[in-house]
Amino acid sequence: MNEEEAVSRVEEWLAGRGGEGTGALRVRRDYVVRATDGWNVTYNTVGWLDGTDPGAGLFPSPVAFVPDDGGEIRLDLELMAVSAAGGDSDAFTRWAEVVDPEFDPGAVPGLPVPKAAILRWEQHTLFGEPTGAVRANPEHRPGPRFSGRPAPESPVETLLGYLRVEWITPEEFVHWMLDLDVLAPAKDGHLQVRDFGDAGARFVVYTSEAQVPSEYTMWQRVQPRVLLRRAKDNPGVGLLVNPGRPETFNVYPETLRQVADLELPAGTERPESVGRPAYFSGEYEGAAIANLRSLVDQARDNGYPLSAEELTRYVRAATLSFERSRAKHDGRPLPELPEDLFANGLVTHFYDNGEPRPSAWTFGKFYDPTLPVGSFAYPRLLGAYVGFALGDALGSGADPADGLALGGLTRQLLFHTESVIRGLDPTPDKPEIPASLPAGGRPDGWVAKATEGAGPPPAEFSAMLATALAATVTGGVQGPADSTFYAMKVVRELVGSAAGHEVVHGAELLVNVFRAQLAARNGEPAVANFLEGFDEYSGEVGELVKTVLDLRNEVDGDDVEQFDSIGDGRTPLSVLGRALFAAAKRGYDAEAALALAARGGTVTAALTGAMVGARLTVPGLPESWLAAYADLGVVDAMAGDAFYYFNRFGLPREPEERRRWDANRYPRGDQ
Questions:
Q1: What is the tens place of the pLDDT at every residue in 598-621?
Q2: What structural domains and CATH numbers belong to the chain?
Q3: Could you give the residue ranges of the DSSP H alpha helices within 377-500?
């Protein structure tokens, strides 16, 4: 028997043994050698041999012995993986796939690891010891959170994230999502179905409770496969997923016909259940919470439903705050406060004269009172202010375990915000601003009194970049002020004529970032996503953006080395670049982003915190940090005042309260 005959026999023998695609088996022609009484023919998978799928390789490489007498082919275990022609570097080793940490093997039972979710392959001995050899996966794509998507609230949202980053195909998404739970809302006892005429009908479903709008007070938790089976006699039925939310999409009937088998194997169908928001599981009465239903609905429409525990804390805190206000008005002794305000749902706001006023904490999920949506989303605006304050504290080296104090840079931000409230019309008719703005930090005002324990802001030009957030919030009313150019005029006035070009250009870039992040509709909360589509700057700022994105897109690059490589960490653009990098690369993880940014000091960490807070909002920040920040109520109050003032349906609609603000809380001009 010659070599070709031996190879031909092995190829026939392999035909019924391998997998498909990259898992198919192929002879290694360069490892076919003569042996005693036959031939040794080495083979492996197609994916390993041509490098398209190293993880599919067989190790040690199998060696088939083909006897000359035409006898049965068998594996030669002694020679396996060490060919007679020489040593095989893969002998007695295996290649282990290193999977992107964002792939959750428990989220979708049975879903194999997608090729695009594999970071690389690392070689190990059969005893599990790494050899140091690594094979990159050129097809890897960064995960959903890294790519700017929100945190998933359910397995089907996890799967949707995989689809959006192209880890799986649309057909694979539909195949796997059919067995995951969705929420089918009901009204008057009927599940919701939308009729699309000739295009068929769609069952309305939502991917998590956070997506269900407040118009629905009941839903059925059900597998789409079970839901669709009810309409099996009507082939024109599909799914309408998350209608009324930013990410609405259809699962079309034709797609279902291609991938769906509506019959479930025994044991895989789960019992259906009925769900309702936590509010409807309790009874809430009293003047202090007369508008509770409105606030609960607002939180739900914001995408942050209140848990039963949060409702309990809020009701108790609102009731206590109300009783103290009534007692103060009547001249009676005030009800006693609990020792730990935050644990009991309270934060400290302030009266116009600076006197403390414990108030119910909203968890960053809603604004009291409920207002029609303006240009900015309240949870993102508050998140930016709170994130800034936390970053300022962490950048000073403070440890949350020891408490976090309001820093001088945060005090300066609040002063800037006070300045724009006192100096600007909330609903201007023209995109013009006054020739000057009143100074913030009025000595007898509540802001100065509430923050008097803070130290001075950093004595560096980069500290003026904080003006960008205060300037951005002035565009909360749709109209002449709701534009980047208006906010840029404000920021130039706040930084002053003596500021250098780096401060001005850096603050203008931040205005663009914050406006995109705070936008109530179609916002770009992830910094990297915004920067990748931002091409309005050239020169030094344009180069800075390019540097940040290039470093961020080196997914496996060392964060600290990349961070430290951006300038000297002292000039305004270097500080800004480091803050942008920390937020762009790790903005989906508040702790990772701020631990990195804190290396650069208070300004870098505060700016990073603002961007991370705007993306994740307060519910996405560590609860332990919020509890450790003693002056949370000060920041909450100022952000709330800015939101209320620069909102067409806020203070501008309340003439009596507007007069009080103009006279006492935020006197106009230089009063």
A1: 999 999 999 999 999 999 999 999
A2: 3-136 (no CATH), 178-276 (no CATH), 288-360 (no CATH), 378-665 (1.10.4080.10)
A3: 378-395, 408-423, 446-450, 467-472, 484-495
